Amino acid sequence: MRxxxxxxxxxxxxxxxxxxxxxxxxxxxxxxxxxxxxxxxxILSHEDDFRDEGIIWxxxxxxxxxxxxxxxxxxxxxxxxxYVRNHHWFNDYIFSFTTxxxxxxxxxxxxxxxxxxxxxxITITIDGTERKHDLNRVYKGSGKGSYQDVxxxxxxxxxxxxxxxxxxTISSADIxxxxxxxxxxxxxxxxxxxxxxxxxxxxxxxDDLLFEEQVEQLADAIIDGGYYKDYVCSFFDERIGKPLDxxxxxxxxxxxxxxxxxxxxxxxxxxxxxxxxxxRDKKPWIIGNVNEGIDQNKLRPFxxxxxxxxxxxxxxxxxxxxxxxxxxxxxxxxxxxxxLYQRATAxxxxxxxxxxxxxxxxxxxxxxxxxxxxxxxxxxxxxVPNQETC
Length: 390
Prior knowledge:
- This protein has helices at residues 33-45, 68-84, 107-116, 130-136, 147-151, 154-160, 178-187, 207-224, 296-303, 307-310, 313-317, 328-334, 348-372, 375-381; strands at residues 2-8, 54-60, 93-99, 120-124, 166-170, 192-197, 232-233, 260-262, 267-269, 288-289, 293-294.
- The chain is an alpha/beta fold.
- The protein has two domains: 1-126 and 136-161 and 255-304, TIM Barrel, CATH 3.20.20.70; 163-253 and 309-390, no CATH class.
- The strands form two sheets. The chain has an eight-stranded mixed sheet. Strands 5-6-7 form a three-stranded parallel sheet, covered by helices on one side.
- The chain is globular.
- It starts with a strand and ends in a 9-residue tail after the last helix.
């Protein structure tokens, strides 16, 4: 297993995406080299506290590549320090980024990629068709869509990272464009689409039925067009839509508390979603800082989290509970009081709609494969999602 450590290098971004949970983005809070160095030194000097086999050094914003000079310096320092310290992560590390793709072809970024190619995971977010993408992913200030500016960088990205997928986000306004958007992204040459509904309470009456209809149309397009042989969409997963596994039923869905984030002030968080710029109504949940380290007492509530401590009984007993996700930060932000132990259930109806469409997909696909005598071949060669995208 790899631990994820996230550097919030900037809270600035060229875009003002309408569904973005980062409501406090600004161009003032930028990480300094001093803070970044202290964070790296603390983490690497406490090897006994971070015994994970590998490490994902994750960089986010805002838009992380606005700080490519700082990122390059941090990564050089991380590599040299892991080597000098003979750290057990030296042979198992990844530098991970999710980017809006606008700066992807810049000379500085391309030099960084060339230098770190064997240890990089870069996901460019393209939200589907131009209509779908530009519905939400717009420039701040002007409100102009960003699709064309991202699209021109997709061929270079796919040439450099052909197996990495993209992420598509669904809010209420996006639902009518699900099928066309996934198929459009496939047409660009992206084989792996991780797609999900936002966790916030934004969905209106009837959205679940329209959502189910769109996902079933997507299922038809994937199966009838033979895309299931080489392409992946996270909406379709045989593990979801079942009662909870008796053994694993109480696992926490979210990794908050087992991850670590650090911001420009040098504060540590159990996840980025607990930083101030991610929260609507609650205070940030700080578990330490780069000077004093991690306060285990402030971290302890996260380590005690499981499904039963935060879910209403209806969720535990639900016949289609498997695969129903949650975000620990949204649970905290939406709770009636400042607690981790109140699960937000705003996406309940959307999950159930996905389950119905998911069942439709697998029933149709397996009927087709059985008739053609190809089920065994499919089982042996089915495409697997890229875990770095998910």
